[in-house]
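FYI - complex with dihydroflavine-adenine dinucleotide, inputs then prediction.
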Amino acid sequence: MFNTFIANSMPYMPKAMVGFFAKRYVAGALPEDAFSMTKALNAEGAMGTIDLLGEFTDDINKAKQTVEMYKLVLDNIEKQKLNTNISIKPSAFGILFNEETSTKFMTEVISYAHSKGIFVRIDMENHPYTDYTIDLYLTLSREMPKSCGTVLQACLKRTIDDIKHIADSTEQANIRLCKGIYKEPDEIAYNNRKKVQDNFLECLELLFQKKAYVGIATHDDVLVNGAMELIKKYKLEKHEYEFQMLLGVRSELRKRLLADGHRLRIYTPFGEDWLPYSIRRLKENPAIVGSAIKGILTG
Ligand code: FDA
């Protein structure tokens, strides 16, 4: 109950207080922070995916700045030979403004990345944007093969059908599979932990059957173990899939996966707009804040 109270209070906490707990989830405010974090991850044997924070913008100038910042990131990935790709979100490129704008800006970033041989992951946001994101991914990966991939969420009831549609529409799908972070209505989503886990493994098996390249994005032992069984069942080689984790989460799992020789990619966000992302992360695990506050209160 204490943790639920903490989770609900998060948006009302002073920014500095959230920042104190949220530091672990973000590389820093500047692009250089993301580059040095990526270097450190690469030295550990992990790959990266750099994400510029800032989402749901209705300011066209901010969306333009996002394009320029991603180009700077891509230039540096090339120059500094970083083993990382990038992740982008439609709502950071002005989808709230209109779809044409976000499509134009995202295409610009993906084309720029493609010219440098750098892969782009289009993150999946909440359900009003699912169709848009899948369509954009399919269109751009047809125009620029292997330039980009997208994300599917196991919490959505539609995901199994989306996998069939994507597999029928592209030569080799490139999908990050995750549970889904957004609170979605019961009519369209499983809002029950066990059902989401079951659907995750069902979707993963279908993706493997369809020969997709999958980023298995989870820190949940049930899903990591279930994925290992499927990897064995389908006799996949290490280069035919990867695990993906968030910066600041379960470093012991990260070390174990790397020690066992799996490909592992760490989601590495940076930017001034760290607050909404950090609140989402802390709400996923309010125990982190809860135990620190309990410690302060009880001395
Ligand atoms: P679960 O939440 O059950 O976590 C399992 C265990 O991991 C917890 O018990 C705890 O120990 C630890 N843990 C999890 N979250 C933690 C946290 N924040 N702090 C500390 N410990 C934590 N979602 C989405 O809707 N669209 C997207 O594009 C993406 N992209 C994405 C990329 C990558 C690389 C990852 C790993 C995840 C995403 N997600 C996402 C988020 C995803 O949907 C989901 O919300 C989180 O991964 C948490 O779910 P788990 O599967 O880790 O299980």
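Strands lie at 47-52, 84-88, 120-122, 148-153, 174-178, 213-217, 241-246, 264-270. The radius of gyration is 19 Å.
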